[in-house]
Amino acid sequence: MADVVHLRKEDAAGLVLKERADAVLRLTLRNPPANVLSIALMEALASALDEAAADNSVHVVVLASTGNLFSAGHDLKEMTAHRSDADGGRAFFEKTMRLCADLMLKIASLPKPVIAEIDGLATAAGCQLVATADLAICTDTSTFCTPGVNIGLFCSTPMVAVTRAAHPKQAMEMLLTGETIDASTAKDFGLVNRIVPKQYLRQVVDKYASVIASKSPEAIRIGKAAYRAQAGLPLPEAYDKAVATMVENMLRDDAKEGIGAFLGKRMPEWKAD
Asked: Is the pTM of this model over 0.90?
């Protein structure tokens, strides 16, 4: 992948920095000091993901952050301020949790892979963001937790993503104890794919993104959707879904080109989106 950045801009509030290099879009959270998922940040990130979904020249999205924390989750000060509302804050709490859930669903359904690049603490909804991403790569000093029980608030929405990424009993360990786990434990639990020294994080993530971006965007799009669809199905239905997907994939132009290139011992030329 070329090192030349073709695009570098931020949203109106400056909460999400967008950088584009070839087919990879990097979205960096910029809400210091803790990159909390405030209403404004979640709306800005959702908007950036919508743009990525609509841009066929984007093949991979990287989610990163600035500072020493990846994300401390929801903005508790913002939420607490609404306890004085007439309804005790119910409407605002519903808005916050629904917006966060919709953001996670947007990542899961995005027709391009999403890689989380973690350097620092990812807690509560920040950990949910990591667990929702398709791949996660972190530094060896990164830490993770779902600490809601420590403040009387079980991490129910982060639970949805964490229980789908980590092993069941280990997910429950995180949710019930609220304790922080280190990068090595997070990898053992299944929350992250790779652990790298801090100075190599960007380099390793860029390499992963570049490799994935070089593949057939059509195959990647079909594959991500099929993976998400079959994951919760009983085994027979999962195979039914996979068989139907493979047949449809075989009929697509990129499959014809890719197989032809393999048999012809040449590099494939993927169709323009």
From this structure: yes
pLDDT digits (tens, 9 = 90+) for 68-84: 999 999 999 999 999 99
Domain range annotation of the chain: 7-213, 217-263
Residue 94, classified by CB atoms within 10 Å of its CB into exposed (0-12), middle (13-18) or buried (19+), is: exposed
Say whether 2 sits in a helix, a strand or coil: coil
- Say which CATH class 217-263 falls into: mainly alpha
Q: Of 201, 213, 20, 31, nearest to 118 (Cα)?
A: 201
CATH 3.90.226.10 is right for the domain spanning 7-213: yes
Which DSSP string corresponds to 72-101? --B-HHHHHGGGGSTTTTHHHHHHHHHHHH
pLDDT tens, residue by residue, 135-174 = 999 999 999 999 999 999 999 999 999 999 999 999 999 9
